[in-house]
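Moderator note: this is an archived Q&A kept for reference. The question asked for a predicted structure of one protein chain; the sequence and the answer are reproduced below.
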Amino acid sequence: MENSQTGKKGTLRVSESVIVTIAKNAALEIDGVYKIPSKSFRIKSLLSSPSDPCDIRVSMTEGVCALSVPIVIKSGYNSVTVSEQIQERVKSAVQSMTGVTVAKVDVTVSDVYFDTSENA
C-alpha cells in the first residue's frame, strides 16, 4: 500500500513501510516506551512483509492515514500520559515528513517491562 500525492512538479509516493518506520522512531523517542512489539511469526509474513517486523498498523482511506501503535511501557510510567505523548509525536512526525494527513493514532499498551536488574 502506498499513498500518492500529485503536485506541480510531479507525483510523490509514500509507502506504508516508510510511515511505519517514522511512527516507530517517533514512538520510541517518548520517555517510558521500552519497545514496539514485533509481529507474531507467520510464514506468509516472510514473503510479503517489509523488513521491519514491528506490529504498527497503517490504514489509508482517501489519502488520510490512521495508525495503530502497540507499545511495551516501562514500569513506573503513567500509561495515559505516555500514550498521549505518542499520539502527538507520531501524528506530527508522519504529517511533517510525508505530507500525509493523520486522522488518528491508536495506542495499545500490550505489556509492561519491569527492569529486574535494578533490584539485583
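Archived answer notes: The domain at 2-113 is CATH 3.30.70.1350 (Alpha-Beta Plaits).
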